[in-house]
Amino acid sequence: NPGYGAGYTYEVGGTCNDDVGYGSTQGPVVFDADKQESDGVDWIQYMGYGFNVMQYRPMPSWTWGGRARAPFFTNQDALAAHGGLPFAQPVSVGRSAGNFQTENDQGAMIGFADGALRCLGTNTGYCTASGLQLPKGKIPIAVAATGESEFTLYLVWDVATQKAELGVMAMLSNAALGTPGKGSLYGFIQGGNWKAGKLLGFIPLPDLKVPTALAANSSRGADGGWHDAADKAVASNNKLDMTDEPTRQTFAPSGFNSLKIGVGGFAMVASKFERKVTFVDLQPLFDYFNGKYFGTRADFELTQNDAGNAPSQWPHAFEFAPQSKPVVLATMPFDDMPTAVYAGFVNPGRKVAPLHAVVATMNGKLHQFDVGGLLDAKAAVAAGVRILGSIDVGRNVTSIVQSKHDRQDSSLTDLVMASRGDREIQFVTYRTGTGAV
Questions:
Q1: 3-class DSSP state for residue 77?
Q2: CA–CA separation, 309 and 186 (whole Å)
Q3: Predicted TM-score (pTM) of this structure
Q4: Which of 6, 226, 397, 431 has its CA 20 to 30 A from that of 138?
């Protein structure tokens, strides 16, 4: 373990012949900070492998020399971007799903009690966005990102009005394997290594008073890599120049790349104590952004040359472009308290039927939903949101995430869940259509 500190558990055994295969899974965590830790954010390695050894005990990452990294946001630049004030307690964190992308697409956005927003990526996917802030009095209860990091969503409690809202921020990433290399495209396919974001506005949630959980996702219409203007596959998305007109036309409605970008999505907001879940249609958002980028050349030029913080500058705020505003589609009641929600995605290139959405309730039920047009480019109707069935799972499930053990079919059908009530991690599959632990 040369040069990486002493805080590690070692495996002692036979000869190690594997000096090639290695990797790690790591990222930020938030915690209840004591007086010495002023920002409540640290960095943990969850898994590592190399030299024929697997490590699953959470520990400080080798990236930081095997030492605790906290606090993260107390340096001069971070404090200056926060008005010279220390950060309040972090209260939420949301990660990019990265449905189709790479190790660069694993950013996390952290919400603080004073409305500050800060992002951290990974050691191979840097996140440099700073100075992001919700308006005064809006507390980010939960954070989520759409499937390719196009947008981040914020479940907000407004202190003054005592109402629930869903905030939407259009994101822009540093160029990486999954992000276009040339052209500034807020709200387009991104890596989770965000470098900037613009708050577009807030959607009222009239059916909910005390929201507690949030999930979101988005879908593109087809699998497969992007092609250049000559219809040849590119090694990675960052090889494409989106300002080149023949290349841009490949993403227009009739182009061969048109079905490989975000075509729709939805968000789910749960209110545990009111026993309700609200479904929000993100289709207007995707339609508006794709229309500006891949419609007329004049519209595209505006997105490149008139970006700024004003509502009328790109990306346009909801007050300037109300047609882009997501729509509250349906609210479903439950007999038990919903404790966690999961939003799925589709991929027509795969033969398995995708899992649309699930809701976990306090006393150990997992309810499967069909969400109809929320997962494609077709118009969504409230009647399309319906329950398909329920299975028994652990009590008080507090987290549901996409399984990625082969990043293809399983990511469409399988889940990993934390049951706080039973103190278990449960793996659930819907590969056959009905769920099974």
A1: helix
A2: 13
A3: 0.93
A4: 397
